[in-house]
């Protein structure tokens, strides 16, 4: 059974590539700066956030922009990726109604093309680290761990959302609200340690844990010093993929009746 | 190798027609709590059983609502049948109406690659066929223009060119040859006839009986989701004409 699925995947690898390419191409088509926006956009928003929260609240820490940038990049990757996946089935309804294609290709491509854009925008982070004198250490290589978790979590959540939104379109609006909640509990532009009480809320958010681990790697700290912050998001990420894939598999034959 | 291209085995397709279409969570919850989630069962296809030999061009006849399009979608693998199964030997290429499945912002050239990828072909294969496709579609001048600026005839031509030039094993044509100008219609009919020589199996739906007679050598007749006749085109067409009188 697995062999058959791998064969189909191989056959549609070119489609996956085409869809990823299409996502990237169309995102910046007709804009003068094109793909440069993947770098400019996080740069500019980080400037705004640093100005507002850095000066306004007198944070003082010199590398504050790097702190913001790490949080913002990872959060945007998650929010855009899940939104892409959620809309992918409806977006490709024309195809789905006519041609047989393994349907998971659509949400997967939505998450993947966004991840490619995200990977490109990491260049900005490297630049920011240089400018604000955050010296990378060997721990930087552990950054791959939160990045893998981020991909799995985005894909898993994306599969769950894409399945559910076929049946309930309202979810697209509900998810925007949920994302706002997730954003504020990701500690993108503040330090949760200074928040005092209400710390428990961060412990519930796997995305915050992923961002925290990533920051550890960037700032040259050992993320395994507090293993719970690595195990929790890893477990939730894997679980979300399992739940997402099973849900998608169970309902995919009914998609056609609802789109 | 099997001598059949498609084996449709006792296929039944059931739809649950809800009285109203529910696609908001609020409506669904309210209806569920009130116990008003009622469905009408509707069998669009029932016990359909036939085989298509390789190289046949089969016309699918029937009045509106007979289940022709549902049958084609089951064969294409878009619908999963409620009962029975469909065995396909070879690659199926459905010709989409009016270029549905094209991306409007993409240019003609980009859409050729995208569409071929959807049909499960590799990049190398499309590279080889690219020029032929453009030439057949007569779109040399417009191939780098976004599809949204194409006329409906141009889109159909492109769709037809892709679906036929990539040499599928089984080609599904659902009410597509009626669009485009007379010249292109003739050209596409000739193309389908020439494909017959290369042993391509064609499934064809059209409301023009003349066209079906010209193109097909076999036919099946559906009525209310059931297969009532299958065989040579002339016999089945005669039964169909009798029915439509």
Automatic annotation (TrEMBL), chain A:
Keywords: Cell inner membrane, Cell membrane, Membrane, Transmembrane, Transmembrane helix, Transport. InterPro entries: ABC2_TM (IPR013525), ABC2_TM_bact-type (IPR047817), ABC_2_transport (IPR000412). It is a multi-pass membrane protein. Residues 33-251 form the ABC transmembrane type-2 domain. The chain crosses the membrane at residues 31-52, 64-83, 104-132, 138-161, 173-190, 228-248. One of its GO terms (cellular component) is ATP-binding cassette (ABC) transporter complex. It comes from the Bacteria. PANTHER family: INNER MEMBRANE TRANSPORT PERMEASE, TRANSPORT PERMEASE PROTEIN. This is Transport permease protein.
From TrEMBL, chain B:
One of its GO terms (molecular function) is ATP hydrolysis activity. PROSITE patterns: ABC_TRANSPORTER_1, ABC_TRANSPORTER_2. Residues 20-241 form the ABC transporter domain. Gene3D superfamilies: P-loop containing nucleotide triphosphate hydrolases (3.40.50.300). Keywords: ATP-binding, Nucleotide-binding, Transport. InterPro entries: AAA+_ATPase, ABC_transporter-like_ATP-bd, ABC_transporter-like_CS, ABC_transpr_TagH-like, Bact_Polysacc_Export_ATP-bd, P-loop_NTPase. One of its GO terms (cellular component) is membrane. SMART domains: AAA. PANTHER family: TEICHOIC ACIDS EXPORT ATP-BINDING PROTEIN TAGH (PTHR46743). Belongs to the ABC transporter superfamily. This is ABC-2 type transport system ATP-binding protein. It comes from Ruminococcus albus.
């Amino acid at each position: 059974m697995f062999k058959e699925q791998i064969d189909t995947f191989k056959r549609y690898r070119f489609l996956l590539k085409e869809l990823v390419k299409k996502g990237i191409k169309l995102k910046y088509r007709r804009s003068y700066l094109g793909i440069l926006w993947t770098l400019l956009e996080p740069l500019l928003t980080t400037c705004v956030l640093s100005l507002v929260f850095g000066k306004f609240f007198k944070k003082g820490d010199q590398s504050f922009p790097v702190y913001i940038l790490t949080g913002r990049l990872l959060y945007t990757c998650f929010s855009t990726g899940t939104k892409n996946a959620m809309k992918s089935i409806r977006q490709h309804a024309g195809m789905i109604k006519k041609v047989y294609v393994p349907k998971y290709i659509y949400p997967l491509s939505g998450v993947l093309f966004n991840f490619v854009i995200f990977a490109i925008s990491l260049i900005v982070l490297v630049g920011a680290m240089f400018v604000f004198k955050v010296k990378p250490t060997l721990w930087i290589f552990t950054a791959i761990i939160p990045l893998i978790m981020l991909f799995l979590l985005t894909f898993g959540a994306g599969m769950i959302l894409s399945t559910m939104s076929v049946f309930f379109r309202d979810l697209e609006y509900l998810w925007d609200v949920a994302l706002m909640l997730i954003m504020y509990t990701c500690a993108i532009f503040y330090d949760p340690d200074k928040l005092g009480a209400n710390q428990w809320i961060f412990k519930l958010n796997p995305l915050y844990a992923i961002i925290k681990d990533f920051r550890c790697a960037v700032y040259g700290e050992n993320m395994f010093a507090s293993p719970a912050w690595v195990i929790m998001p890893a477990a939730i990420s894997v679980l979300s993929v399992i739940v997402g894939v099973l849900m998608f598999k169970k309902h995919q034959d009914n998609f056609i009746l609802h789109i | 190798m099997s001598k059949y291209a498609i084996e449709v085995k006792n296929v039944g397709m059931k739809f649950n027609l809800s009285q109203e279409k529910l696609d908001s969570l609020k409506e669904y919850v309210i209806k569920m709590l009130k116990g008003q989630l009622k469905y009408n069962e509707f069998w669009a296809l029932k016990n359909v059983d036939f085989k298509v030999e390789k190289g046949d061009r089969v016309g699918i006849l029937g009045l509106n609502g007979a289940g022709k399009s549902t049958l084609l979608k089951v064969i294409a693998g878009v619908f999963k049948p409620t009962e029975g199964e469909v065995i396909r030997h070879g690659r199926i290429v459905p010709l989409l109406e009016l270029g549905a499945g094209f991306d409007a912002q993409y240019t003609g050239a980009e859409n050729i690659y995208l569409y071929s990828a959807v049909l499960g072909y590799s990049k190398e294969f499309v590279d080889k066929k690219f020029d032929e496709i453009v030439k057949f579609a007569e779109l040399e001048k417009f191939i780098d223009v976004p599809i949204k600026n194409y006329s409906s005839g141009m889109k159909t031509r492109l769709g037809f060119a892709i679906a036929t030039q990539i040499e599928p094993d089984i080609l599904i044509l659902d009410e597509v040859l009626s669009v485009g100008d007379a010249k292109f219609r003739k050209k596409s009919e000739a193309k389908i006839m020439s494909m017959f020589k290369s042993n391509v199996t064609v499934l064809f739906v059209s409301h023009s009986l003349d066209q079906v007679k010209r193109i097909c050598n076999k036919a099946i007749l559906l009525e209310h989701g059931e297969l009532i006749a299958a065989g040579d085109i002339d016999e089945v067409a005669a039964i169909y004409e009798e029915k439509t009188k």
